Sequence to fold (104 residues):
Amino acid sequence: MTLGNSIKIIRTARDISQRDLARDLKISANYLSLIESDKREPSLSFLKKLAKELKVPMKMFFMWEGEPVAGANTKDLDQLRELIVRMETLMPKPKEKVRGRKSA
Fold:
């Protein structure tokens, strides 16, 4: 799996649209789409911002890349990665900000 795919999986697991995430990051939705489709490589500073916005550790973006750990069963690693993604989807979502309302 690629960096772009893992970003997309985490974003969709958090139930955030590309448009909303792009707005919050102050980038275009088109640029985010290019990153998720691996047509652009984001900078390290962008990934830090993205991780903060998605409320995940930055290493989550890279857990699917690279060679398997020596002696580790690839099937077990894949199952572990899938489990972590599922756990992330169960995390409580941040409360949405209500705009334009005044408190009584």
User: Anything to note?
Assistant: The helical segments are 3-13, 18-25, 29-36, 44-54, 74-90. Residues 3-90 form a domain with the 434 Repressor (Amino-terminal Domain) fold (CATH 1.10.260.40).
